[in-house]
Molybdopterin-binding protein (Sphingobium cyanobacteriorum), 248 residues
Amino acid sequence: MILTRRHLLLGAGATLAGCDRLARTDSVREALFSAENFHQWAQRSLMARDALAREFRPDQISPIFRANGTSNPNTPAYKALWRGGFADWRLRVDGLVTRELSLSLSQLRALPHREQITRHDCVEGWSAIGKWRGVPLRTILEGAGLRGTARYLVFHCADMMGSGKPYYESIDLLDAFHPQTILAFALNDRPLGVANGAPLRLRVERQLGYKQAKYLMRIEAVDSLAHIAGGKGGYWEDHANYDWYAGI
Ligand SMILES: Nc1nc2c(c(=O)[nH]1)N[C@H]1C(S)=C(S)[C@@H](COP(=O)(O)O)O[C@H]1N2
Ligand SMILES: [Mo]
C-alpha cells in the first residue's frame, strides 16, 4: 500500500475535524496535540481507513444486481433527462471549491477510469457482487480544488423519498480520496441502468449499501453537515437513525 504525503496531510486534517468538539477543552487539546502519540494514533487510524475493500474475480459476479430503495426517480425532471439519453444531464460540483464544475456524462467517460469487482452489502440483509467502472472521486476533487475548510462531500440525488425529501448522502475526505471511491457510470460492462442509479452513482466500497448514492446530480463540499437537510449527513441517518459512518 502506498501512502502519499498528501494522504497523510488530508488524513490528519480529517481526523482533527472529528475531534473538534473534544478538543475545545484545553486539557484534552493538550493531551491530543502535544503528545507525540497523536501522530502515531492518527497514522494508525488512517492506515486502517485506507485499506482496500476486497475485490473479486469476474466469475464471482452476481447474475443479477438487484435494485433497492428507489428503482426509478420518476420525477418530471428525471424523466426528461432519461428521454434525452442523459445528454442534458450535468454533474454539478460546488460548495467549498475553487472552481465549480458542471460535467456531462461524455466528459466523465473521457476521464481516466477505474474498474473494480466488489461486494455490496445492504443492511436489509442481502449482498451482491458487481463490476463497477467509473472516475475516481479524487480526480474530480482535484479538478474542482477543495478549499482548506472543506471536510465532507455531500451527494445530492435526483430521487424523492416517500417523505417528499430528496435522497442524499455524505462522506469525509478520507473516504473521498480512497482509491476505490469512484463515480460509477457502468455496471457489469453496461451503462448503468435506471434501477441501479443511472446515469451516475457513488461507490464507496468500505461502506454499507445506503452510502452508495444513486442518481447523482450534485456534489457539494462543506465544512459541516449540520445545515444539510436533517443535519445527520444522509437521508436514512436523518429519518431512521442509521449510523453516518457505515464502515465494513
Ligand atoms: N438516490 C438513492 N440512492 C440510494 C438509495 C436510494 O433509495 N436512492 N438506496 C440505497 C440503498 S439502501 C442501497 S442498498 C443501494 C442499492 O443499490 P442498488 O439499487 O444498485 O442495489 O443504494 C443506496 N443508494
Ligand atoms: Mo440498503
About this structure: Confidence is low (pLDDT under 50) at residues 1-24. The two ends are 19 Å apart (CA to CA). The longest helix spans residues 5-23. The chain has eight helices and ten strands.
